[in-house]
User: Which sequence fits this backbone?
């Protein structure tokens, strides 16, 4: 079997290689060829592979509307029967990898987006506690700038990190009912969507990001947004819980875990959104047609407590198997885990919740907005324009 995953750096790179080797040792007739691929390449590489004849046996899958879009290729294997005996142990999380009640993918971890921050830089700027409201965040940005520090790092070169900002403002401005009805319908007609853009406009005007942020990658190298935070060159970054593992590979600082903390996106005064709603998702895998029975069995192995405990202990993600939660020992990741489990609702990243072409159009519109192109309305319009040709 060939296996495409996005663990191009440690600790995930080694965890996945060990998993493949261990499975082979227990099943000598099954060989897994591991092919790590940079995360940003999946958006184009997977659709192209599924349209051709040279596709992997197992590939990285984020579920939602993106997964549904892939079904038209006829290459995504229905795992319903093969997983029926064990997928229930994952709880409601597995539903995000279903389409019309059928299981076309299986998650191996869960994610929530929030702020990673440097405790030392907060102290240097006189900030005594993480911000609870947008007003607090704006005040902290001002304090950090007065102290000569870059308040927030962002990897806008890769474009997708920009979307987290507009999406979180939308989650705070829009009611839960609006999120649950208008995102699946691909009709962003409520006034809250424009208010989210207005919030973003006002925030960008404070110049909260590092210099030349439009040319900064998200995760590649010490000069990436993750690297800037890891090396104390920026005080905050809005990213997923996976960022601790990413940062560890980008710095020589062995005390990094004790120097960073985590807090949720602040409440927006006057917003109709529930402050307890989180933006997140997860990572998983799908099998392709023609895959042997070992493919689904291997996905089960990745969700067994042993591998799940490694994922938790290494700070790779929040374990999808609750039996492994005790292995999540990092205080910052414990905070993210507790927040995700106490959240009133987890809104899946918009570009995953929506069909692939619509999500990509939205990401591009937000990235263009960050670059000074377009308007708050053009972000909203990108969804309706792209969806006019989508299979909803």
Assistant:
């Amino acid at each position: 079997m060939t296996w495409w995953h996005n663990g191009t750096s440690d600790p995930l790179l080694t965890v996945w290689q060990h998993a493949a080797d261990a499975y082979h040792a227990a099943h000598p007739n099954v060989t897994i060829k591991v092919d790590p691929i940079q995360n940003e390449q999946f958006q184009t590489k997977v659709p192209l592979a599924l349209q051709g004849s040279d596709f992997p046996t197992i590939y990285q899958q984020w579920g939602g509307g993106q997964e549904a879009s892939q079904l038209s290729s006829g290459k995504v294997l229905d795992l319903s029967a093969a997983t029926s005996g064990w997928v229930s142990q994952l709880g409601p999380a597995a539903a995000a990898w279903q389409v019309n009640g059928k299981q076309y993918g299986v998650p191996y971890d869960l994610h929530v987006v929030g702020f990673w921050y440097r405790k030392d830089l907060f102290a240097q700027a006189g900030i005594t506690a993480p911000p609870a409201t947008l007003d607090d965040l704006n005040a902290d940005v001002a304090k950090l700038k007065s102290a000569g520090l870059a308040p927030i790092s962002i990897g806008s070169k890769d474009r997708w990190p920009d979307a987290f900002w507009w999406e979180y403002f939308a989650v705070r401005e829009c009611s839960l009912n609006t999120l649950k009805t208008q995102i699946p319908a691909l009709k962003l007609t409520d006034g809250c969507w424009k208010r989210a853009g207005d919030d973003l406009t006002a925030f960008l005007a404070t110049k909260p990001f590092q210099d030349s942020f439009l040319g900064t990658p998200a995760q590649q190298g010490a000069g990436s947004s993750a690297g800037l935070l890891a090396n104390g060159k920026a005080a905050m970054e809005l990213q997923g819980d996976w960022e601790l593992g990413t940062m560890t590979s980008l710095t020589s600082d062995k005390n990094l875990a004790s120097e960073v903390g985590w807090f949720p996106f602040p409440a927006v005064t006057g917003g109709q959104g529930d402050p307890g709603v989180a933006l997140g998702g997860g990572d998983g895998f799908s099998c392709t047609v023609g895959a042997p029975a070992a493919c689904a069995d291997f996905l089960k192995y990745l969700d067994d407590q042993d591998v799940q405990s490694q994922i938790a202990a290494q700070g790779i993600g929040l374990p999808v198997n609750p039996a492994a939660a005790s292995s999540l020992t990092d205080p910052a990741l414990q905070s993210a885990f507790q927040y995700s489990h106490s959240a009133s609702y987890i809104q899946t990243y918009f570009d995953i919740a929506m069909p692939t072409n619509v999500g990509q159009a939205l990401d591009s519109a937000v990235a263009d907005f960050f670059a000074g192109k377009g308007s708050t309305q053009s972000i909203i319009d990108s969804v309706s324009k792209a969806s006019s040709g989508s299979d909803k």
Summary: The chain is about 45% helix and 15% strand. The mean pLDDT is 94. The two ends are 32 Å apart (CA to CA). The longest helix spans residues 12-26.
